Amino acid sequence: MEVPPSSSAAIRRKGCRSPYFFTLVAIILFITILYGEYFLLIFGGQSVVHRPYLSSTSGTKKNGEKLAFAVGEAERGCDVFSGRWVWDERGPLYKEAECPFLTSPQTCQEHGRADTDYQHWRWQPHACSLPSFNASLMLETLRDKRMMFVGDSLNLGQFQSMVCLVQKIIPSYDARSMTWNGSLVVFEAKDYNATIEFYWAPFLLESNSDNPVIHRVKGNDRAVRKDSINKHGDHWKGVDIMVFSTYIWWITGLKFKIQEGTFDDEGKDIAEVPTEEAYRMAMKSMLWWVSENMDPNKTRVFFTTMSPTHGNSTEWGAPEYGNCYNQTVMIDDANYWGSDCRKNVMNVIDEEFRKSRYPITLLNITQMSSYRKDAHASIYKKHWDPLTPAQLADPGSYADCAHWCLPGLQDTWNELLFAKLFYP
Q: Transmembrane ranges (predicted)?
């Protein structure tokens, strides 16, 4: 991006210069340094996006050593999460039909979605470029190691995206496998003795929604057990690269239920607290577990921020109320931030992660994903219950505006993960 020439160049004159000239130059230089980033955004045609600040790791630990798995460093001043979507005629990094490990609701084309424009958008940071995803480098890095995604079905989607991105270079079907066993799903690249895994834990803490199949609980009845992260955490030990995510299951109202005893206790001691307080408890528990069980010299931990749901079309300027159904173009307002992404929760993440002794890398996908109302599964998924006549008459009533089609947006999340893993 070219920066317009300094105005001082336009007022050069031969001979002596007035003292006022040097004062003016000094003022211009001061303003340029102070507000240079904003000038770049303005001259580059991009709006400044106001969003909660989220810290992330640099390329080194606090003691100056490089983070595990890093092979280089990001360009100076590069924020890969601040950028815009640009059209890419080349299309996605893989085809839906070429990845046998995809399941609904990610398999949108299999379930009738005909348009493919949503697959052609590439994320372009303002001040740099993303490194190309290198499946060979990823698998070689994972040789004799484990990568695990922990969270809910949105993190399952990111897991499936990662599997699709790497499995395409494994020529033999016998050299790769996927095993589903309760809360744990394991993809194995046998020639590499490498696994990419997913573990179902929608709250990270023990909850009454922990059954990976039968977990539908009315929003107001959802509850987590205090100080219970080891219930799941015992299954995470020995992982080399961890990707946590939890958000959407917490957003049931302004209050959330916390249980002191086990879920089998007859006399249950349940307290209702503000949602952000309950979420903070989960973040503190996760950070404690990481500091106790992960070696920062050998492992990496990532946290994927909240994923937007696009449930109210009036928020992006539609004349009538609707949702992601039948949306095939992006939101073009760079300042858009939907009510589905709670800034108070975003701030909890930032506040708690700043205190962490372990260098956790945030994958701040919220703003970039907020523009992508076109990329949801919508009605193009398997429906476990027969649709009613009323639903069939109003497709928006059963549109899935939480999950995302693959290939699609979540591949970009993993491109960002790739960038931060190898070039932090």
A: 20-43
